[in-house]
Amino acid sequence: MAQATSLPEPLTADDFLPFDRQQAKIGQLLFYDKILSGNRNIACSTCHHPEFGTSDGLSLGIGEGGVGLGPTRTAGTGDDRIKKRIPRNAPGLWNLGAKDLRVFFHDGRLSVAETFENGFNSPAEEWLPEGFNSILATQAIFPLVAQFEMAGNPKENEIAGAIHDRIDAAWPILAKRVRVIPEYGEMFVEAFDHINSPDQVTITEIANALAAFMALEWTSYDSPFDAYLSGEKEALTEAQKRGFLLFYGKANCAACHSGKLMSDQRFHALGLPPFGPGRTRRFDPMVRDVGRMGESDQLEDSYRFRTPMLRNVALTAPYGHNGAYRR
Q1: Is the pLDDT of residue 196 over 50?
Q2: What pLDDT sits at residue 5?
Q3: Which of 51, 114, 130, 149 is an active site residue?
Q4: Domains identified in the chain and CATH numbers
C-alpha cells in the first residue's frame, strides 16, 4: 500500500547538536535544584520529571507554590493555596537538542529569527542575553522568570520583584545565587573554557549547561519505529504496521506530524475545547487562549498552536496544549 505522505529518513545522532558532557553534569544538578526558583521551592524537574515522561501527568501544570509531584501535585490548601495554575500543558523534553528545531512553546513565542538582531524573537526582545549554545538554552531561561512557573508572586522574593522592573533584571540575581556556591563555581570554571573565576558565570552559562543536560539525557532515536524506517521490517508488530499505514496514509497524520522530528513546526487550529483559562492576553475582554495570535497579532493565527513532536508520546499524557485529552 502506498503512503499518502512520503516517509521520513531515520533520525540519527547526526541530526543533533553537539553538547559538552562536563557542562551537562552541571545542568543535571541545576535541573533538579530549587535554587533557580524565586522562592527556592520548585525546580525544572517539578514539571518535567522523568518519572512522568519528562512532563508532569497533569492537564495544566501546578507551578510555584504547589505541593507534591506529578499527577498527585496539588495547589495547596487554605491561605497557602496558589491563586493560578500554569495556563498550558507542560510539554515533554524529548529531542530538544535537534539541529532543525526553530520554534519553541505552544504559541511559538520563541523562535530563531533576526527580529531583534540577537538571533531570536523572544519575550525578552532586545534584552535577551547573548552567547546561548542553542534555542533550547534560550528557552531554558524563561520559566525562571515566569510568575506562576518558577519566579513567584510580587513582593515574595527578589526575583519576582526584579521581573516587574524589566525581564532581564532577574537573571543576574539568579546567576549570582548559583556561582557563589563553591562547588558550582568550581564546576563552571572547569567546564567552560572562557570562565576563569566563578564571578564570571552568567545566566548564559547556566542556560547552556541546562540545555546540554536536557539534550543529552532525552535524545531518542533508537525506537522500533526508527528500526522500521531503517529497513527492519519485523521491528513493528502487525498492529503497529497497520497504525503506521494509517498515520502515513488515509488518516493523513503526517501532513502536520512530518519529517524526522514528526512535526512541521507550524501552527494549526484544531478546535480543541476550552479547558481552563489558558494563556489569556491581559487586554482581552474575555478569558480565552488565542494561541499563536497572542504572539503574532495576526487574526489568521487565532487559536493556532504549534504541532508537537511525537517521540515517546505514549509517556506524556494528557495531550493538547490544554491537556484536554487523557488518551
Answers
A1: yes
A2: 67
A3: 149
A4: 17-217 (1.10.760.10), 224-315 (1.10.760.10)
